[in-house]
Amino acid sequence: MDKNLQEKLTTMEKKMTEKMKEKIKVECDKVKEEIEGGINESINFIEDAMKEKMAEFKERAIDNEQYCRKSPVRLFGVPEAEGEDAETVDVCIPNPCKNQGMCVKDGFSDYHCLCPADFLPPDCANKTVNPCVPNPCQNSATCQPSQDKKSFTCNCKGSFKPPLCTCDCPKGDPRWVPPIRPQQCKENGACYCPSYDGNIYTLVEKGCQEARQNPCDSNPCQNGGKCSPTANKLSFICQCPDQCTGDLCQNCDPDKICTPGYCKNGGTCVVVGTKPFCKCPPNYLPPDCGKQIITTGIRSLCHPNPCQNGGTCRKVGFDTRECSCSKQFDGKYCERDKCMDCDVHAICYNGQCKCRTGYMGSGFKGDCKSESVCNSCPLNAVCVDGECSCIAGFYFIDNTCKIIVGS
């Protein structure tokens, strides 16, 4: 028997079986209504009749093979072909798949399309959207689309971090003294510290910090206090003279600042702010009038050096001199310490006042407020200069920010 015919017969047999089962159920329901208790006998009778009909149908189909080929109507009323010499219609001709998709038959009358890489089922009509075009991955990483083209994965090089292969180095923290600057990425994604401002920086947890120097180099202790760095060189301790107290020895008894013998060679001690200064007699130099100007036949404007606190003296013109001061000091003779203006909760770094960690503000006296104050601001309030203030439209009542109706 022709293989095609055999397949058709098998399919028809299955469909006939299903229809016969439906007919059996209908007949059984009728029998049940008419004869109570005779259902089983009726079913057996109908099943026997069904078997006889199926056997008769198979015999007729085999004996009349050409009839099935030439019939203008496919089984169950689906048009297939017409004419005395017609052949079975191929569901893949003409090709229902678009954009050069391949049609694959599924059984007797169905099909599916195998689409090219850039097109989508069911009929290959719609083009896929490639999530890797343009490439979303950074730092020369390759992009791998998912199978359904709905997502992608970046294959990162070196130490760059997924999902997009970005540089994941610490961003720094300007609140530290000296400030911590951001780390940068090398070509392989490894973090390193560049040479900011020509200075040497070292890797720390939050970024890059200028190589640790002695915190006492800036002379943070006031009024003759002695500075001692801590073991990690991140901070210092001031040992104050008897007349002064405070973290920086900034609180002094005015009557005790000018101690006996502070100014030498007849100099007069005066208090400026909280620090003692000496008014020296002619030919003697500050800070303590201990150095004497020795006059020789050759005039020297910068010898001995009149500049204080490490300042450098240089001649300007024939009979004029000026002092170049370090960042911490200014004044004609570098006699003024900029750190005198710093708050007790601030650190002086290169002549600039910066609040210590845990405090915020400008760093000047009276302007370093605890950050914990801002953490306790009520709802509808903002922290400004270390103080809680209600936003516009709200008023501070009973430690909360409230709206006053009618205001």
UniProtKB/TrEMBL annotation:
SS bonds (residue pairs): 115-124, 137-154, 156-165, 221-238, 240-249, 280-289, 325-334
Key words, A-Z: Coiled coil, Disulfide bond, EGF-like domain
Coiled coil: 2-34
InterPro entries, per the entry: EGF, NOTCH_homolog
Domain EGF-like, residue spans: 88-125, 128-166, 212-250, 254-290, 298-335
PROSITE patterns referenced in this protein's UniProt entry, alphabetically: EGF_1, EGF_3
The protein's name in its UniProt record: EGF-like domain-containing protein
Source species of the chain: Desmophyllum pertusum
